Amino acid sequence: MINEIIRLREKAKQAGEPVLRDKSFELLLDTVKKEKPKKILEIGVNLGLSGIAMLISEPNASLSGIEIDEEKIKLAKDNYKKFGVFDRAKIFQGDASEIIPVLTGEYDFIFLDGPKGHYYEYLPNLLSVLSVGGTLFADNVLFRGYVLGSVKTPHRFNTTKHSMENFLNAISTDPNLSTKLYEMEDGVSITKKIK
Ligand SMILES: C[S@@+](CC[C@H](N)C(=O)[O-])C[C@H]1O[C@@H](n2cnc3c(N)ncnc32)[C@H](O)[C@@H]1O
To answer: What average pLDDT does this structure show over 93-108?
Structure first.
């Protein structure tokens, strides 16, 4: 089944979809296998491919996704059906900025992969629904090499870059958290809520 996901990821990449990069995808699945979460939250679902791979890797988990694009939600739900995980996956449709503050319950794994300029804004509410011992996995934290890198940032990306720097600083300095940064591809951070 994972081979079929990999095939669909290649197809999606060729179609220009914003697919999680290969090493980051592997790291996501390795982290899920290690942490064995029961309740996963995914911000930014797209075609549902990473979500399906997480659910296949962890057969006892359920997934809640947040996605703004109605067309993508339809395609993701079709994919959930195709891979037999539809009963374990639901999607909240709308803007993550509006949905995250009203989330209830607890999640033990959060995959943050939505709009890059909003991670810092989402952080306090995400931490409040993350259980102690839970994991926050964030993609694109080095944002095209503009964050912590030597790549000159075009003016239009300055706000996103600064917001991402604030996010990285917050997850690295909060004494309740333990964070590891992976400087590969577009940058991944893995944060554990330790208390
Ligand atoms: C990088 S893709 C997600 C890929 C997916 N996590 C995966 O690995 O297969 C980002 C998704 O975030 C969605 N998105 C963008 N802005 C959003 C917002 N404000 N609220 C919710 N979803 C948003 C996009 O429509 C897109 O499908």
So the answer is: 97
